[in-house]
Specification:
This protein is an alpha/beta fold and about 90 residues long. Helices cover about 35% and strands about 25% of the residues. The two termini are about 20 Å apart.
Length: about 90
């Protein structure tokens, strides 16, 4: 069963990013929010190789710096992900 991981971790939380990476499986979706928007691209390459989808719900000024492996979604798409997933894991 695919999990929706909603992530609001800053770059300094390397231990939590490592735990997140370990917890992610093929088919999971990671949505970056808040501080994770700036730090998520540092970790996104590893997810792309494992079949994990990485999205950004609120990119703001960081939008131009996002790599092509990260999909930018709007609020409606974000809510659709929430509806579609039975399991949601919050990383803060």
């Amino acid at each position: 069963m695919a999990i929706l991981h909603q992530v609001a971790l800053g770059a300094q939380r390397i231990d939590a990013w490592t735990s997140l990476r370990t917890a992610c499986a093929a088919g999971d979706t990671v949505v970056l929010m808040d501080a994770a928007v700036a730090s998520g691209p540092l970790f996104a390459a590893a997810w792309a190789q494992s079949g994990v989808r990485v999205c950004v719900a609120a990119a703001g000024d960081e939008r131009a710096a996002l790599p092509g492996t990260i999909e930018l979604i709007d609020d409606h798409q974000w809510w659709q992900l929430i509806v579609e997933h039975e399991l949601i894991q919050h990383w803060m």
